[in-house]
Amino acid sequence: MSTASLPTQAQQDARSTQIRTVLLRVLALNLALAAAKAAVGWRVHSLAVVGGAIDSGVDTLTTVLSLALSRVAAQAPDERHPYGHQKFEALGALAMVAFLSITVFELVRGAVAHIRAGRVQTHDTSPAVWVMIASLVVGLVASEYERRRGEALNSELMVADAAHLRADVFVTLAVLAGLLLGRMGIPGADAWTTLFVSLLIARTGWEIVRGAVPVLVDERAVEAAEITRVAGEMSGVQGVYDVRSRGRQGSMFAELTIAVRGEVDVETAHDIADTVEREVSARLGAAGVIVHVEPLDRRPARERVE
Fold first, then answer.
1. What is the CATH number of the domain that holds 11?
2. Sheet holding 2-3, edge to edge
3. If you write DSSP's letter for every residue of 140-189 in order, what string do you get?
4. Average of pLDDT values for 160-174?
5. Which residue range is the domain that position 139 belongs to?
6. Strand, helix or coil at 232?
7. How far apart are the two ends of the chain, measured CA to CA in Å?
8. Which of 190, 216, 242 is the last residue of a domain?
9. Which helix (H) or strand (E) holds 242?
10. What is the pTM of this model?
């Protein structure tokens, strides 16, 4: 058995530093947005804007959670966690879903209350409108920035946090639409818009769940046929079987068994295994590859590579 080298601790530390830098920037923006919304919401007596401030405050808490978990996820493999700590990022992503669920619940509850009351805005909301427009622009830019960096660094946490921030953009749109329609004297318009936006946020949470759960339950990361094809192309490989994979791109682990001719000496078999490891890692983006070597006559007959 031979293993491809895992990311070094220096590489893990560099990745962790980049993730924390992005999260700190987003945290600063969330704090600024929450403060601005709270101040203007109090000034114009707008419950919707204050609710937007609370939502931004929840964003701040999720970003703090992301910062804490990113440190754990960056730790090197140890005796108790030989495959590393990347799953903590997926756990953090699910925690984001919990916060999103709270946001959806509060939005629906508030919207239903407003529909029943048939409330019409009576205060001058011009300052709030401008703050919400600024919040919309900043939120869009920040969420796209974090999403791109999260995908580049293969961070479930950052992608999930970006999705939550993007959900806050939808909330801002709902609040802004409600403010504008309320100025027109239309009762309940903002509430119905909020109900629609809550559905969009719920869909965002579902997408996060779809991305995080497969990592936590060790769902196959790549088709076994694809790994078999890559390994089978290597010189000296007579068969490929018992193919497994887990994780996700950038932190994927693969394990497979190859068959070589019985007359091949140990050193040559080891070189063949090393070649398979390098190619599978390079072509499929695996962080770790384990290759078992068996003589040709011991492998299942159905696994022969023609």
1. 1.20.1510.10
2. 2-3, 286-295, 252-260, 239-246
3. HHHHHHHHHHHHHTT-HHHHHHHHHHHHHHHHHHHHHHHHHHHHTT-TTH
4. 77
5. 2-216
6. helix
7. 24
8. 216
9. strand 239-246
10. 0.56
